[in-house]
């Protein structure tokens, strides 16, 4: 292929000729000779002869289809602009057209357009009466529901902007979101009342409202006086139309604040105007041919643009019925579609891969879904997905919530996020520009202007800003400074402005765009740029669609960043040799990760995007640790034991750390543990030299397996006493704990079993066990002995639930359902009050329960900003509790109100009963910030009530 001497002239002439050719085709077959003649003429005019003939031949039908639909879209937008249409105005027209048609369905309850209209009117009237005015902002913090739609629609009718808060946010990030949008009010659902109550002190000046779906008696007992219950207030509000308020609305008015996912920091509030909502929703409808009689399945969170605009907008602005799922479920996805007779469904992020990971079932193809649209379907699983589930059309699209540049795939091109005809730049001005991979800044030529990328050359996707056109306008964020950072100036001419997407895409010769990476995710190694999304796709396919997160980590004294992959391997089936072999075949040397981290949980945003920031911060460390225990049997000695997690399995160790009380110095004895990485360690109550470890090791076939064993410490080495026969129960061993008082018994938590062992120095037999049954093979996350009632109970957690088991009958004797909104990580019993239990979890909360009444926690605290990994009662003073978290903090709190010491005091000094007693205040007593990594374990000493140890992942 020769280089064009005058590429602009060739492109313009080719475009003119192609247009004439398309017109000839439209005028009839009699003019085919003219078309052929034109193609011959083009052959002589352009230097890139074959290329342009090939492009026109292969894209003519696609581009003509796109042209027709784009003209229809522009006409629709023009009509909206001419009539000064807003979302409430268009919804009013849809409602008047078919008031009795079902608009939304959720939890088997359906609402008609008439019901949506009346309820949203009640909302508008009520908040107008409360003093809210056009331009004010109210935060909406609520799980998916039809009421969610009605609330923001009702507020929109009176011109109030709704800030849609991510329901996963807590404490500081939650408060940040409210303040970023300058909200004057907050509406929450009853499910999220605890999170609001936790930060009420910092919400002074913000009017608080709650929509409660529980009975009136429950509502009264749960809602603080400072929060207004909307249930009765709205029922008394008029249903009459808000005609004057709706007519006053303008298409440029702010409609919603939708927050960025927070993959790279605190979420930013993106401004969604009425114009932006109309374009995004109607654009997908027109380009993908969504019809009035379609039923759309929406499992996406309504605080996200895809859920609240692109999916819900098909009902509000188009008249299609939308089925809302409260929370995405891979196992129920197709069953829901079948039950609701859905014809269209939407996806985002990793959802399609999760659907593929579910074992094949007959109903995979028994649905009526013809179209699925969304963004995030990886090219590597595209064909497999459409083939297995028999999806006729995938409408993959690209676009940021706050952006002005969007693409959509209308012709099923595998791997494409959309296209722009090569000759349509003037009509739809989006382009790829060259960017420096190190600085992430655009590369400019000698005149100071940006450089366009050639086909096949990755570049940053930018879109020209034109405030006068709905399609090209950019409203930005609530934070003007953040908005300014997204604008590039003087891109191709003096004074022009382009929206900077921050995404790296690549366009082929035919105008198809494919997503390559985020600018911040691409890293440079050995002089080459590594696109993490491509490496992730290769690894995920190689290991059976498991979660794989690829990122670059800094290596001391080495230029660039080395590749590292974090892999979710809860069933311990990862074959590292097989992975290495496949990566050598499929990836160049510079793109292969040098480090592998096995993780128990994938950090995801609420919209199923992978969060890499925390993992990048952790980096790599070949000598990490997460197993910690205190000495149990000799209470006069301050001794702790730590187990390491070295990447070199045969170099792991058990460190025995003992404090000299006279000199306050530490003495450490190191014992080799060559069997593998230690995930948990436990000390015997009967012998200071007996311990148990739970560890992973490699089989002869290089398969990673978990094992648990009893050891005897012999000076500086470990002698194996008993290898527990755990394989009969499963491979995922969480831990093994010695009995509270009987040194010949131990408890193991394995997959969905708890197993109690009776062992001696050469053998171990299980004499009691129980199995957790349920859909989807539920697994325990942790377990403990209940030290009370003669140790007759075992307590376990699975997902968000906590269960008590009777050892004699192996039956469940009590349960705390949904103890946390996310996985329960740890639990601990009050040593003195037999019914009091503390739990902690991935929702960032520590909760205290009375197991005689498990409907609500006695105390619920959110002291950490991330997952809470450990909670421990002080053995001597049960009002003192330690917690540790992946936010790198250890926090000491006082819960005197539920302790065994009614005065709430502790004895100061050296436990001298005659010394003065000091009353402690409830709440946080101290925060320890010495760690720089996730703190996975914390333990009180059994020898001194004032001494504790904590252990972070970096081994400190």
UniProtKB/TrEMBL annotation:
Residues 625-892 form the EIPR1-like beta-propeller domain. It is found in: Cell membrane; Peroxisome membrane. GO terms for cellular component: endoplasmic reticulum membrane; peroxisomal membrane; plasma membrane. The chain crosses the membrane at residues 12-29, 35-52, 148-165. GO terms for molecular function: ATP binding; long-chain fatty acid transmembrane transporter activity; long-chain fatty acid-CoA ligase activity. InterPro entries: AMP-bd_C (IPR025110), AMP-bd_C_sf (IPR045851), AMP-binding_CS (IPR020845), AMP-dep_synth/lig_dom (IPR000873), ANL_N_sf (IPR042099), Beta-prop_EIPR1-like (IPR059104), WD40/YVTN_repeat-like_dom_sf (IPR015943), WD40_repeat_CS (IPR019775). Residues 534-609 form the AMP-binding enzyme C-terminal domain. One of its GO terms (biological process) is long-chain fatty acid import into cell. This is Very long-chain fatty acid transport protein.
């Amino acid at each position: 292929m020769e280089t064009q001497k005058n590429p602009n002239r060739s492109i313009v002439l080719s475009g003119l000729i192609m247009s004439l050719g398309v017109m000839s085709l439209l005028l009839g077959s009699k003019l085919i000779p003219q078309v052929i003649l034109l193609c011959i003429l083009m052959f002589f005019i352009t230097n890139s002869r074959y290329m342009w003939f090939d492009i026109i031949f292969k894209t003519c039908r696609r581009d003509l289809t796109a042209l027709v639909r784009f003209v229809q879209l522009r006409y629709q937008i023009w009509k909206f602009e001419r009539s000064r249409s807003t979302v409430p105005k268009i919804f009013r027209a849809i409602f008047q057209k078919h008031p009795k048609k079902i608009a939304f369905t959720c939890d088997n309850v359906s609402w008609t357009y008439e019901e949506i209209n009346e309820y949203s009117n009640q909302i508008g009237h009520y908040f107008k009466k409360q003093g809210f005015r056009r331009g004010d902002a109210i935060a909406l913090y609520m799980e998916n529901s039809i009421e969610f739609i009605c609330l923001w629609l009702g507020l929109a009718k009176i011109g109030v902007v709704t800030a849609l808060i991510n329901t996963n946010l807590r404490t500081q990030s939650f408060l940040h979101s409210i303040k970023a949008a300058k909200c004057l009010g907050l509406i929450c659902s009853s499910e999220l009342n605890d999170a609001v109550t936790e930060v009420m002190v910092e919400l002074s000046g913000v009017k608080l409202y709650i929509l409660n779906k529980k009975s009136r008696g429950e509502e009264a007992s749960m809602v603080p006086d400072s929060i207004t219950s909307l249930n009765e207030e709205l029922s008394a509000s008029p249903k009459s139309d808000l005609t004057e308020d709706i007519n006053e609305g303008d298409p440029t008015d702010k409609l919603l604040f939708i927050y960025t996912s927070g993959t790279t920091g605190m979420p930013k509030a993106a401004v969604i105007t009425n114009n932006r909502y109309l374009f995004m929703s109607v654009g997908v409808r027109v380009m993908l041919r969504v019809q009035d009689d379609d039923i759309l399945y929406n499992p996406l969170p309504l605080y996200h643009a895809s859920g609240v605009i692109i999916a819900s907008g098909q009902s509000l602005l188009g008249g299609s019925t939308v089925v809302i799922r409260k929370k995405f479920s891979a196992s129920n996805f197709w069953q829901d579609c079948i039950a609701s007779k859905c014809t269209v469904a939407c996806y985002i992020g990793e959802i399609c891969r999760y659907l593929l990971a579910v074992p094949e079932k007959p109903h995979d193809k028994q649905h009526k879904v013809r179209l699925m649209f969304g963004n995030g379907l990886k090219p590597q699983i595209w064909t497999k997905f459409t083939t297995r589930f028999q999806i006729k059309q995938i409408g993959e699209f690209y676009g940021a919530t706050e952006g002005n540049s969007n693409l959509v795939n209308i012709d099923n091109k595998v791997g494409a996020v959309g296209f722009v005809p090569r000759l349509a730049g003037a009509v739809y001005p989006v382009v790829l520009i060259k960017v420096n991979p190190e600085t992430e800044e655009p590369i400019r030529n000698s005149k100071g202007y940006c450089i366009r990328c050639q086909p096949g050359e990755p570049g940053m996707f930018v879109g020209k800003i034109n405030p006068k056109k709905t399609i090209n306008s950019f409203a930005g964020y609530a934070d003007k400074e953040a908005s300014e950072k997204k604008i590039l100036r003087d891109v191709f001419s003096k004074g022009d402005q382009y929206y900077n997407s921050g995404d790296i895409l690549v366009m082929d010769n035919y105008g198809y765009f494919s997503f390559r990476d985020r600018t911040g995710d691409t890293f440079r190694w050995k002089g080459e740029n590594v696109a993490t999304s491509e490496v992730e796709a290769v690894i995920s396919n190689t290991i059976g669609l498991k979660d794989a997160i690829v990122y670059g980590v800094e290596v001391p004294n080495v230029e660039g960043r080395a590749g590292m992959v974090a892999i979710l391997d809860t069933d311990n089936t990862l074959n590292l040799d097989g992975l290495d072999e496949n990566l050598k075949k499929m990836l160049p040397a510079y793109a292969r990760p040098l480090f592998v981290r096995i993780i128990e949980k994938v950090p995801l945003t609420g919209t199923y995007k992978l969060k890499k920031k925390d993992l990048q911060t952790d980096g790599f460390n070949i000598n990490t640790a997460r197993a910690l225990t205190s000495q149990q049997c000799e209470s006069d000695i301050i001794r702790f034991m730590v187990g390491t997690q070295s990447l070199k399995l045969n170099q792991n160790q058990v460190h025995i750390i003992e404090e000299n009380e006279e000199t306050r110095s530490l003495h450490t004895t190191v014992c080799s543990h060559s069997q593998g990485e230690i995930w948990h360690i436990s000390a015997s109550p009967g012998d200071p030299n007996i311990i148990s470890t739970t560890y992973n090791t490699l089989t002869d076939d290089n398969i990673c397996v978990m094992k648990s064993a009893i050891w005897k410490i012999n000076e500086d080495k470990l002698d194996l006493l008993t290898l527990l026969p755990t394989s009969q129960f499963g491979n995922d061993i969480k831990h093994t704990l010695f009995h509270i008082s009987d040194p010949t018994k131990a408890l193991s938590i394995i997959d969905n079993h708890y197993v109690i062992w009776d062992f001696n120095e050469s053998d171990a037999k299980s004499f009691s066990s129980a199995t957790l049954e349920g859909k989807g093979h539920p697994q325990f996350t942790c377990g403990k002995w209940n030290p009370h009632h003669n140790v007759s109970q075992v307590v376990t957690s699975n997902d968000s639930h906590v269960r008590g088991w009777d050892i004699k009958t192996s039956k469940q004797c009590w349960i705390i359902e949904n103890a946390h909104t996310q996985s329960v990580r740890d639990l601990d019993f009050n040593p003195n009050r037999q019914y009091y239990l503390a739990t902690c979890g991935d929702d960032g909360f520590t909760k205290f329960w009375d197991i005689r009444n498990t409907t609500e926690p006695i105390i619920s605290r959110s002291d950490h900003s991330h997952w809470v990994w450990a909670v421990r009662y002080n053995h001597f003073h049960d009002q003192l509790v330690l917690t540790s978290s992946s936010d790198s903090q250890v926090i000491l709190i006082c819960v005197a109100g539920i302790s065994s010491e009614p005065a709430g005091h502790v004895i100061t000094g050296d436990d001298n009963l005659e010394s003065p007693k000091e009353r402690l205040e409830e709440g946080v007593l101290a925060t320890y910030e010495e760690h720089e990594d996730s703190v996975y374990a914390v333990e009180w000493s059994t020898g001194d009530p004032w001494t504790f140890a904590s252990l972070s992942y970096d081994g400190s």
